[in-house]
Every structure is written in C-alpha cells, then in structure tokens.
Design brief:
Layout lengths: L19 H16 L2 H11 L8 H10 L2 E2 H8 L3 H13 L3 E6 L2 E9 L1 H21 L5 H18 L2 H11 L4 H6 L1
Antiparallel strand pairs: 1-3, 2-3
Helix pairs in contact: 2-6, 3-4, 3-6, 4-5
Length: 183
C-alpha cells in the first residue's frame, strides 16, 4: 500500500511551504473574492463618482475595454446569464450610460455601446482602479511591477484560452479533471 500525499482540501499550516500552483490558486481565489465582491465594486464606483449598482460596474467596464457588441456576447464574456445581462443593461441604459443600436447583420439583435456619459464613467472607473493597483504595488520596484504585469497577463491568457477553455466546458458538463484522473 502506498501513501497518498496530502490533498489540497486539507488546511495548510500558516507559513508552510506550498507548491507554486497552490499558492497561485489561493491568491487567485482571494483576489477574485475581493475584487469581484459587491463591497469592492461599490467602493470603486463611489470613489469614481459613478452612480451605478455595484453589479453593473463589470459590464460598464467590459464595454469600455472591448467596445460595442451584442448583449449576448457581453453576457458570455462576463459569464452571466442572458436575463441577468438584460437587467444590468436596462439599468445602465436608464442611467444614460449605454446606447443601443440595430445590429446590421441581424435586425432582431441590437448592439450595446457606451454613451458619452458611459465613456466618461468608464474613464473614472479605470482611473480609480489604477489608483488601487498603484497602492498595492507601492512598495514594489519598477522592474518587479513590470515583470508581474507581463507574467500575470500571460497567465490569464493561458487560463482563458485553448485547453483550459475545453477543461472548463468539460467541468461544466459535470466531470472535472481531477475526477478523470481518479479513473
């Protein structure tokens, strides 16, 4: 009988050395939980002077970053259901932050884009996000911050492309990679 190594579900003693993958997983979990939280999104919007529901910050930001698109594409990008996306876009339209126009390729669909006020709100959100990031990097030297930005961008690209996307699809279908490896 062989002994199995400790699984990642067991608590790790504070200060214990972890594999880089476990450290990254823990850091990413904390980052996503913090940055994506209603409280953080609300704080960013308040600091930026943008009067939107905290949950509407992400679609506003995504439209500013990626430009005009169908609401279904935006929902897919943000991994939201179509009804949730529709509610968010209705609120943003009521606030005067987005415009809708007919999709030339499909008359049944519409394209959403930032209005002039929405583009200004996006700029203020980005400016406030940059302030937060600069604060977190304030004790880093420039070379370390540059390397971190490049490596994090590479890491995110690897997570969101190719095999990882296929793995996510299989996981959503009910079978995780870990379950396959157990077979």
């Amino acid at each position: 009988m062989t002994t199995q190594p400790a699984t990642t579900t067991q608590p790790v003693a504070k200060g214990a050395v972890q594999a880089p993958e476990l450290e990254l997983l823990a850091a990413l979990t904390a980052l996503v939980a913090n940055w994506g939280s209603v409280a953080t999104q609300e704080e960013i919007a308040l600091r930026a002077g943008v009067a939107v529901e905290p949950g509407d910050v992400q679609p506003l930001y995504a439209l500013g970053r990626t430009g005009p698109q169908r609401s279904s594409t935006l929902a897919d990008t943000l991994r939201l259901s179509r009804p949730t996306m529709s509610k968010q876009l209705r609120r943003l339209a009521a606030a005067g932050l987005i415009d809708r126009s007919a999709d030339a390729a499909d008359g049944r669909a519409s394209i959403v884009s930032l209005s002039t006020a929405g583009a200004e709100a996006y700029r203020r959100l980005v400016r406030e996000g940059v302030v937060m990031v600069r604060g977190a990097l304030s004790e880093w030297d420039a070379a370390g911050a540059d390397a971190f930005a490049r490596n994090l961008s590479r890491f995110v690209a690897a997570l969101t492309a190719g095999e990882t996307s296929a793995s996510l699809s299989k996981t959503r279908a009910g079978e995780s990679t870990a379950q396959k490896e157990e077979r």
